[in-house]
Amino acid sequence: MTDTQLDPENAKLHILAKAQRARNGAAEGAAVRDETGRTYVATTVELPALKLSALQTAVAMAVVGGATVLEAAVLVSEEKKFRQEDLDVVADLKGSGTAPRLFLADPKR
Description:
It contains 3 helices and 6 strands. Helix content is about 35%, strand content about 25%. It has a single domain, classed as Cytidine Deaminase, domain 2 (3-Layer(aba) Sandwich). With about 110 residues, it is an alpha+beta fold. Strands 2-1-5-6 form a 4-stranded mixed beta sheet. It has a two-stranded antiparallel sheet with strand order 3-4. It is globular. The model has no long low-confidence stretch (mean pLDDT about 90). β1 and β2 form a beta hairpin.
């Protein structure tokens, strides 16, 4: 996936996730947008007592910020598909409407 394949709002999520991943030197970067348009950006958390994927961390940050529904999420990872636990955490914030749009991006693009 490249920014030209996304609408401007989702391209912004891609850019933020990719930049945060690079800034932290993390395995993954993620960005989510909630129902009010607020954006949350995170990377993988790798502590001895706590391990979270970047998408799990971004969703947790959104929930702490008051989000109840996600519109979209971008994960920048070398993985070729979403992990089930990431899909599950995003599904928790789908609301009564349609499920959030999910995008998986290769870090090299």
